[in-house]
Write a structure and sequence with these properties.
Chain lengths: 423, 281
Amino acid sequence: MREIITLARKDLLLLLRDKAGFFFTFFFPLMMAVFFGTIFSGGGDGSRRMSILVVDEDSTEASVKFTEKLGGSEALKVERSGREDAAEMVRLGKRVAYVAVRKGFGEASANMFMGGTPTVELGVDPSRSAEAGMLEGILMQYGGERMQELFSNPALMRQSLSGALDSLTAPGTADFPEKQKITRFLGELKLFASDTGVRSADSGGFPGLTPLRVEKAAVIREETGPRNAYEVSFPQGIVWGMIGCAAAFGISLVMERTRGTLVRLRIAPLSRSQILAGKALACFVVTVLISVALLLVAWLLFGVIPGSVGKLAAAVLSISVAFVGIMMLLSVLGKTERSAGGIGWAALLVMSMIGGGMVPLFIMPGWMQTVSDFSPVKWSIIALEGALWRNFSLVEMMLPCGILLGVGILAFSLGVRAFRWTE
Amino acid sequence: MIRYTNLVRSFGATRALNGLNLEVRTGEIFGLLGPNGAGKSTLINLTAGLLSPDEGEVSIGGNPAGPGGGSRSMLGVAPQALALYDELTAEENLRFFGGLYHLAGRDLSGRVDWTLDFAGLADRRKDRVKTFSGGMKRRLNLAVALIHDPETILLDEPTVGVDPQSRNAIFDSIEKLHRGGRTIVYTTHYMEEAERLCDRVGIIDHGKLLALGTVEDLVGEYGGRSAVVVQTGGRETRIPTDDPVAEMIRLKQERRVRGLRLESPTLESVFLNLTGRHLRD
Ligand SMILES: Nc1ncnc2c1ncn2[C@@H]1O[C@H](COP(=O)(O)OP(=O)(O)OP(=O)(O)O)[C@@H](O)[C@H]1O
Ligand SMILES: [Mg+2]
């Protein structure tokens, strides 16, 4: 194993020194992904704000104020909508969440010491629960601010207290053990508010002081398509990276022979399988690195959030295995690095063209989609999309991943058999 | 000891080696002298296990050469075709190949320094090989062969394109290796190199060993007579003789001589006498 690592390390160093190789393995794929993603998202607003819908079912002064506050948030991109539409948009994955301000919100806000808690309903795309947590935090913050405002505005507070006292002392209200005490307390508080003006208050716990209740509504996400164009362009970019990598390492294996270094490796105390395993390991490491790098960029800068990290890892590993095999097979296609490079790139381009590496699969005509079954590029893209946004089940993931692993093993063993050890 | 027995190796219709028998003794510098296409590299490649023989066998220290042989880590080879990573520096090349022989840490660094000194490349150690001149690459190619301090060293025309000064430095180093008990097989078509370096020389042509022995033995046996070359007017006349001194005195008295030169037999004349051809056409 030490020998294989030594060999692989040398190849990584060589790749770093090879500007063209480095360009085609790292920068070109990234450029493709960003370029096509941007074109197809119609310019792209580039903002990373969370898109949500707000439904105001209450239409009171308080509810309007609350929704306006949400709209002013740095972190949110808020659009108004009807309730049905809002739920549907989230279900289709077009928005992250909706916030519905329930009827009675205004009333509950005014009567803060009695009656119900102001309530909003939150419906979130289940695949984006991390963002939902953030949204909930923002909602609570605004709820809290509203209450603080109440405490620092004596007129508002007096009004609220009067309302509460009225409803407590109204004829016909049921008695409860603390009724006397609360009535007296509220009366004194009213007096206090009218005398001095209140700056702050301890919001310790009797009922009615919860600033805002967030009720979560269940949304079942329906699978329809990618949420943004980058979810299509980044899988394509990753496949371009794999192609660049397979070509670069396939050619470098031919170069070991033409430049004579293979002779040195064969003279050294190494087995033939160690020599090839070293090349395969280097190729594998680079394919995984490319995928991780592109996925990180996609996530951090373009909001491409994987549906499942585990499945994404499985996709990346299977694709890497497939392209390591393809690399090995490419290395036997030509005698010189020039012919191997030419034939290799041609084969890879065809593979990519029919496999959806250039034109997205769903745009292709039916017969073409059938032809594309023969391209590992197609299965790579399906595996990546399955984990990113198609929400594939484990069983659904097994088909593309299985095919990719099979392709990798088959191509690798064919390549090893046909590999020419001498000039 | 390296033993070659009835070695035959063909490439298509070409018989590169045609029934060669030879023993290289432990601790000697053995020179393999022959013209282009004689089969020298083929013999080296068979020894290194890069080729397998069609017939006959090669054994190193009693073990058969070849991929399965356990002798590989004791063998250092400088192939005739340069075998270096152009994009790596001299030091990185040496470190990489040293690593393949399980050298690491201080041992490796020590060997890297030693081989760079050996090749006179210490001041270029951090430069990429692609920026080297032809002779420098050749010297590094030789250095890599020695990185793991092998017992048996196969050098296939290691000084082609190397300037005389560096060549002399390399010869000194090779002699040092020799004194350290290493066995060295050295192929060349420069007879001067064979004469200077080698304990014994084998003359090879068309895949066959034509003669074998010390330089002195070979010249004595196959070199033929010395010759005196006389210059009269614009012309040179070559007169073979067994007693060159007497001949020169005679010529000096007889003719109006502008110049006289003595040609003693060399490996070149040995080769000429053995094959009817010059070593370099
Ligand atoms: N891989 C090969 N394929 C075909 N023919 C070969 C091959 N290797 C060597 N030969 C032939 O075998 C013969 C011996 O070649 P070899 O390389 O051993 O000669 P050499 O003595 O090393 O010559 P030089 O001094 O030019 O290096 C030549 O006729 C050559 O053409
Ligand atoms: Mg040769």
